[in-house]
Amino acid sequence: MDISLEISIIKTIPLHFLLFQKVYFAIVTPMNERLRKLLKDSTSAIHVALEERALDLFSRYYRELLFWNEKMNLISFHTPEEVLIKHFIDSLTPLPYITRPQGRLLDIGSGGGFPGVPLKIARPALQVSLLEASRKKCSFLKHLIRQLPLSQAEVIHTRVESAMTDNSYHRVFQTVISRAAFKLPALFSMSRFFLSPGGLLIAMKGPRGETEETGSAHGSDLHFIACHDLCLPLDGGRRKIMIYQIDS
């Protein structure tokens, strides 16, 4: 999608929405010191260390996300703390299990950038591709990448089925990740196309997950490695991180 398409989307935003952008930004300011401290403390609780630059980027991300969310419904939340815990912190929980921090990572069904953008902020050397079918969400993601800015990050605007017909994406990613966007059998099929030899599939699931799938990936080339149960800081929300590895 080129810049003219993004401009056409922006033209659909009501004029009063654009006129009051500065006022809205004054209301939903970048994260204040209390929220920054909450983010820093919460990442420490999941064994992730954030530098000051990363905290600054999360602050900008927070502002852009809330602003665009008024138009696109990118996320659901009731309080600023929910944005931090249920979206930023939740997205960072797989970070300790990414074994190639300078490799290529594909986020399937990225939506508002989760988990790919938080992972990229926390580990700048990651080469992140955000795969998303929604045109409007892709506009937000491209805008976000420019605004932060993030190098070695791209948006792939297509359905995953179409991406799987493009040989430029075939077996080139060391990590494939998805945050509750697809059932495991579908992720297994996708991963076989996208993963490079020895690469990891990381499936982020809710508390119940799909435990019947932990022992087998319905094929001899993709093997179950681990299932990590964890609790999110502050709200105690339970998550499962399920990891599979494809043959070398």
Structure description:
The structure is a single chain. This protein is of the alpha/beta class and 248 residues long. It has a single domain, classed as Rossmann fold (3-Layer(aba) Sandwich), CATH 3.40.50. It has helices at residues 3-11, 15-19, 21-27, 33-45, 52-72, 80-92, 116-122, 135-147, 160-163, 184-194, and strands at 104-108, 127-132, 153-157, 173-179, 195-205, 222-231, 238-246. It has a 7-stranded mixed sheet, sandwiched between helices. The longest helix is centred in the N-terminal third of the chain and has 21 residues, at 52-72.
Per CATH, the superfamily is Vaccinia Virus protein VP39
Helix share, percent: 40-55%
CATH level-3 fold name? Rossmann fold
Roughly what fraction of the amino acids lie in strands?
15-25%
Rg estimate, integer Å: 18 Å
Class computed from helices, strands and strand pairing: alpha/beta
What is the count of distinct domains? Answer: 1
At CATH level 2, the architecture is 3-Layer(aba) Sandwich
Biggest sheet descriptor? 7 strands, mixed
Uncertain segments are 15-27
Mean pLDDT: 87
**Major sheet: order of its strands?**
3-2-1-4-5-7-6
Can you lay out the helices and strands and say which pair or pack?
Blueprint: H1 3-11, H2 15-19, H3 21-27, H4 33-45, H5 52-72, H6 80-92, E1 104-108, H7 116-122, E2 127-132, H8 135-147, E3 153-157, H9 160-163, E4 173-179, H10 184-194, E5 195-205, E6 222-231, E7 238-246
Parallel strand pairs: 1-2, 1-4, 2-3, 4-5
Antiparallel strand pairs: 5-7, 6-7
Helix pairs in contact: 4-6, 5-8, 6-7
